[in-house]
Structures are given as structure tokens and as C-alpha cells.
Design brief:
about 160 residues; mainly alpha; about 75% helix; globular
Length: about 160
């Protein structure tokens, strides 16, 4: 399997995991944002326009799976993709602690922006699960995922 095929298979696997988590595991309050990991990868490898387009698509996908309002997560993901694209060159992904912290803080900021919009639009409360727990679980999953030598070689984010 070539690197391109492996990356495509990994992205498809992450998309299917996201759908599975939203359908079945939301009842247990286990929510990992697998689509955000795809956004991080595209922002680290792509150009500026690819990052923004991917952020819009990932945000709309998150909107379709999580909320009834289309555009809230789309906007927050575009904002964070812009920030990620600007600072990703300063992140050392060889150190797993930096990888975890980067994903944790970027997803927390993105979810905070989306939560504020949902607060203003539908009077939803700020959720600790979206701002703390989901980024924590997503960061831990990313560290476990990137810790594999096969995946390190295939995604080549260094």
C-alpha cells in the first residue's frame, strides 16, 4: 500500500469513526473529534486555501453530526485553521507532548468559539465537555495514533 493510499484509508477510517461516535457513543459522553485530526493534518501539509476549504468542509460535517445550525462549527473551524496555518511551523510534532498540547488548545479554542455562537443563537450553555473533555480525549487519541511508526512514516508531519 502506498503512502497516498494509506493516508486516504486513514482519513476514511477517521470519518467512519466520527460517524460511529456520534451515532452510538454520545450516550456515554465519549466524544472525540476525529474530523479535527484530519483538519490538523491538512493544515500542516497543505497550502492556505486548502486549509480553509478543508476547515469549512470539516466544520459543516461537524455541524451536520452535532448541531442543527449549519455554519457554527464551520466558522469556528475556519478561524482555527487560519491560526493553525500561521503557527504550525513553530510546532515540533516529534515531541508528543507538543502534539497533545497543540491539538488540545486549538480544539478548545475552536469549540469555545462555536459554543459562544450557540450561546448567542439558541441560548445553549457553555459545555465543559466541549471545551475540556473533548479536546483532552482527541489529543490523547492523536498521541496514541501518531505514536505508531507506520503512521509516522505515512503521514510524515515532521
Amino acid at each position: 500500500m502506498t503512502k497516498r493510499q494509506f493516508r486516504f484509508t486513514l482519513a476514511l477510517f477517521l470519518i467512519l469513526l466520527q460517524i460511529l461516535v456520534n451515532l452510538y457513543l454520545n450516550e456515554f459522553n465519549i466524544n472525540i473529534d476525529f474530523l479535527f485530526l484530519i483538519l490538523i493534518y491538512i493544515s500542516s501539509k497543505g497550502n492556505f486555501m486548502k486549509s480553509l476549504i478543508a476547515a469549512t468542509i470539516v466544520g459543516w460535517g461537524t455541524d451536520l453530526l452535532n448541531s442543527q445550525i449549519i455554519g457554527v462549527f464551520g466558522f469556528s473551524r475556519v478561524v482555527i485553521a487560519y491560526i493553525i496555518f500561521e503557527i504550525i511551523v513553530f510546532i515540533d510534532f516529534k515531541r508528543l507532548s507538543f502534539t497533545f498540547l497543540f491539538i488540545f488548545f486549538s480544539l478548545s479554542i475552536s469549540n469555545l468559539v462555536a459554543s459562544l455562537f450557540l450561546l448567542f443563537i439558541n441560548d445553549y450553555g457553555l459545555s465543559v465537555g466541549m471545551i475540556i473533555y473533548q479536546p483532552l480525549l482527541t489529543g490523547m487519541f492523536a498521541v496514541i495514533l501518531v505514536n505508531s511508526d507506520r503512521i509516522k512514516e505515512a503521514i510524515n508531519v515532521y
